[in-house]
Amino acid sequence: MIGGRGKAAQAAREARAKVLWQAMTVRHRSKGHVRFDLPEPLCTPQAALVLAGGLEGMEGVYRVHVFSGQGKLSIRWFEDVCTLADIARLLAGLVGEAVDLDQVPPAPGEEPVEPSWLDRLKAAAPVRAMRQRYDDLKAKADVVRQIVAIKTGKPIPGGVDLQEWIIHFLNDLVAFYLIRQHWDRIVGQWLPRPWAFRYQWMTVIYLTFLLVRYRKGAVPKVKK
Question: Across-strand partners of 35?
Answer without folding.
Answer: 28, 74
